C-alpha cells in the first residue's frame, strides 16, 4: 500500500515533467526553479520565481496577506511570478483534522452562549489607529464602498475649492470659497479611493451633491440621488470600472431630495424618502436615468417636523415582509411602500430628537437566519444619541449655545406588535456619530461630538472615543469604550467597514468651505480634514490572528441564489464545529450625516462546518437580502476572516 500511495502521488509530477520538457524551454536552464508541494489542498507544481519570497515565513509582518494572496491566485501564478498547476482532486489526509491545534492558553473561553455558539476569544486589545493617507484632497461628506474595493466619496461643488485638482482637467465657475480664491474652480469634488493602496483618482461632478443620498445597485454601481440647488432632483450613476465617470440627469426625480434617505427594496428598486420640505417618497429603478414618476405622500414627515425640522435624513429599513420601517424625529411607522398605506404606528421614542439636525444614529441590528424558519425572524432596530428638539435653534447662529447631546439608546423589535422601546445609556453623549455593523455582529459607534447639533460650527467637544456595542449581551453590559483618536471627526465626517475588517474614517468639515489653519482663517475652530485614517477594532488584535479563518476565494462560491446552499473553502488551523463558526453577509452602506443607508448584516444558516469547508444557506428572499453585492465573512469565535465579495439575485 505504501508503494502504491507513492506512485499515485508521483504520477502527476512525472507527467508534468515530461510535458514541460517536451512543450517548453527548460526552466532550470533559465535560472528558474521547479517546486513540488503536497498537502491537504492537494498537489501543486510550480515553475519559476526567484525563491526569495517565502509566504510561510511568520516573521514577515505581511505574512497573512502574502499567504492569502498565494492561496487565492490558485492555479495561475504563485509568488515571485511562479506559474503553478494544482491538482486539488489528489487530496489526501483527513480534511476535518487540523494541521495543528489552535492554542487557547491565556484566554477565558467560558461556556457556550444561549444561541449554542461558543464565546468569543478574549483580548485586552482596545483597537489602534493609523493614518492611511495624509491628504486625499476631498473631505468625505458622503461615502460608498464598491465591489472593486474602491471607496467613492464626495462633498459639494458649490462651496469653493477642494484640495486636489481634477485630472484630467475639468473646470466650472467658482461658487463661494476662501478669501483669495479666484475662479474658475478646477478642483475635484469627488474621488475614487483605493482602500488597499490609498491611491486617489479624481471624478467629475456636474450637479451639486451637497447633503445627498445614495446606495449600491444590484449590479454594483453607485446610484446617487438629490443634493442642493441644481442637484435637488439629480440622479447620478457611477459604474465600478477603470475609466468610468458619473452619468447625470439633473431632472430625474419627482421632488427636491435634499437631506433624503435612499434604501433598496426587494426588487432592486430604490425608495427615496423625504428631503427638506418634501413630505413624500418615490420609487425609482436601480440603473436608469429616465423613468416614470412613482410618488406617494408621507404624512409622518409633516407630523414629525419641528420648528427646526429634525425630520431630515429619516431612518429607513426594509423589513422581512417587504414593508419598510420609517423613523423621523421621535416618531415611527411601518409603511407599505407600494401603496403608501401606514400599516402600524409604533410607540414614540422618549426623549428628544434623533434626526437631522439633532442627528442621532441608528442601525438595524444583525438578523439571525441560522434558525429553523429563516423567513419568519424577529428584526430589531437601535436608535442612539441626538439632542433636544430645540437644540439647533440655539446652536445655529452666534451667540451660540451648545446643549449636551443625548447619551441614551432605544431598541425596538419591529416584527412584533405591542413591543416597547428598551432603553439603555452609552458611556458618553454623542451627536453626529456613525453607527457601523462590524463583521462579527457587534456595532461600532464612532465620530461625532458631545454637544451641539449638525450644522456649520454648531457643535463643540469632539467625541474622540469609539464605543463597541455587543447587542447579544445583557442590558448594562453591552458598551465598551475603545482606544481614542486624536483627530476630531464631527460634521460631514464618514466611515466605512473594509474587507480586511479595518474601519476607514475620513472627512469632517464644520466650516462653510475648506479651512486648514487659523492664520488664514482666524474664525476657524476645527480644520477641514482631508486626511484618511484606519481603525483596527479589537478582533484585529495580533494575538487573535492565530484563530483567523482564511477564505480560499477561487474554490468558493461567489454567485448566490436565494435559499440555495453554497460552499466557502477556508483554511483554519483548529478543530471546529458549528458552535465555533458564523457566516455573516454584510451590505456595505452609503454613509453621510451620521446615517448608513442600506446597511444590514445577516447571520446565515449553516449546513456543514469543517476547518476546510463551510456550507451555508443563502438568505431566502430579497426581502431579507435585497439583490446585489455583499461582503461575506467567516467568523471564528469573534475573529473574522477577510471579507469575500459575493453577489446574490
Question: Alpha-carbon distance between the termini?
Answer: 49 Å
Rg computed from alpha carbons, rounded to a whole number of angstroms: 26 Å
Low-pLDDT residue intervals, each spanning 5 or more residues = 1-63, 70-112
Task: Please tell me what the overall shape is.
Answer: globular
Structural class of the secondary structure composition? Answer: mainly beta
- Quick one: how many beta strands? 46
Please work out how many helical segments DSSP would assign. Answer: 4
Helix content: under 10%
**Biggest pleated sheet:** 7 strands, mixed
Beta-sheet strand percentage?
Answer: 25-35%
> What's the pLDDT, averaged over the residues?
87
Description:
The chain has 649 residues and is mainly β. The strands form 11 sheets. Strands 22, 36, 38, 41, 44, 45 and 46 form a 7-stranded mixed sheet that branches. A hairpin with a 2-residue loop joins β18 and β19. Mean pLDDT is 87; it is low at 1-63 and 70-112.
